[in-house]
């Protein structure tokens, strides 16, 4: 081919030109760098260095001929120059001559920039330092400060770096690897001073962020203490977990601590997943979606997926990237990134379901900023996936504009303000509720008599144990001038303040009716009319009885457990509870109490006591208890010891022999009294 293009007489000239070009290329090998005038100054070892891909321990020798190596600058990584996407071993070499102006008494030292990967440093063929570990079990660092290594007395020689770059993750851009800046040489004192100035400059540049980290610490401590004081304030717990996750990520990656890349980044993946979950639960509570039919369940599911993916991704990153399974690890990293990126849109879903709710501006601002922040994170992660193959620059452009840092700061302020407003509102609501309960307790104390009236010919005991601050059980014993008495005992469905308010209505009605009516069935009918339409799907069970001094007893029942006469349960006609049906008719049952007979009346809280194993007190245990002839206090104590779950009221009425003095006793909350 050459012969057809060039005449024969020009062939020797062509060969001469080729040889001359080769000699010129050889002559272009960088000359040794002459280092002069060190003194108190430092010198940058910049310019072109000899560079070669691959690995051979003999390349550390100063006698090795590196003239055939390529030239590369050290102000950029090799991925930014001629070896995009390369991972594995590579060597840098530079010949150094120290001129006559380097006659110093002090030893020399070398200040290294950040180097992508694990490396070993050789001076004249001798290993003088390293950072991380090379394969087969590599360890490397990504955020340590500059390292210093000693060179000894000024001597001409060869400086060589043996660098190993780890395989890329799915979001890496392929531009990393090797030195990110020139090393600096100087006396030990000068290098130490220069490193100190660089460290100070870094600390000075981080002052704002250190203040931000302290703010997060304050949020963590105050939020955790406030939550421990009031475990019902779940938003304080999630706020603390969110602040804790952020601080852990900073501790792992932001403070230049000696964590290896696998440890710091691997743990950080799980921590950041926890931060996302904390934001979701903050939104779920602050947007009042925690009682939504399916959102809490889906939040739990997505939280489990996010944390599981974070842990798996962390395990993949922390795995051994120096073995033959690197491709499998890279594929796993890419696959795990898909669900991790997709769940970042979940805050937007929560905001959508909150539309239409009447929430204050603080919560809406927090919700919008949280959604924007996580959408930005998700979009940035999505744009970075496979970027070294697509060569898209969108992720890089997002990193150059401080959108995400600004959103993160705005999110911090919005979350703190929203949680503060929510906590204040909850405290005010809790204070109002506690005041209502105190008022209800005071009302109930008025409704519960401090002493029971003496009932001639009978011994009466009564015990009342509400399950909460206020209860729904009630009893009244009203005596008449002729020696007879009307006794009413019942149970309002439900507990707490609403039940207590219903009790106040019932007791007022009983005291009014008792002045003119002594027929138990008529009393129940009157109560039924008064309660109908006021209970909103609730009901009241009740038993009423009339006693005279001769032992004559008339009873009527409205859906209440039948009293016991001595050891046997009375057989009473069935009837609906009060407040259910306006037209229900109640029937009286008459019996006569002999001397020594005992009536035991109780509410279903006695039957519904439940032990830690889940067993109910049951009728069998109740029959056995009544068989021991307990007074009211003994019966309620037995149920409470078994495991109280509902209000418990027990009354016993025992017929005394003629001439025996009547007695009464009453046990109630903050109230124990007796009279004879």
Please, could you describe this protein's structure?
The protein folds into 3 domains: 165 residues, Jelly Rolls, CATH 2.60.120; 222 residues, Rhopdopsin 7-helix transmembrane proteins (Up-down Bundle), CATH 1.20.1070; 227 residues, Phosphatase 2c, domain 1, CATH 3.60.40.10. Helix content is 43%, strand content 20%. The protein has 17 helices and 25 strands. Strands 1, 3, 4, 5, 8, 9 and 11 form a 7-stranded mixed beta sheet that branches. The protein has a 7-stranded mixed beta sheet with strand order 20-19-22-23-14-24-25, covered by helices on one side. Strands 15-16-17-18-21 form a 5-stranded antiparallel beta sheet, covered by helices on one side. Strand 19 and strand 20 form a beta hairpin. Helix 5 runs antiparallel to helix 6 and helix 6 runs parallel beside helix 9. The radius of gyration is 43 Å and the shape is rod-shaped. The N terminus and C terminus are likely disordered.
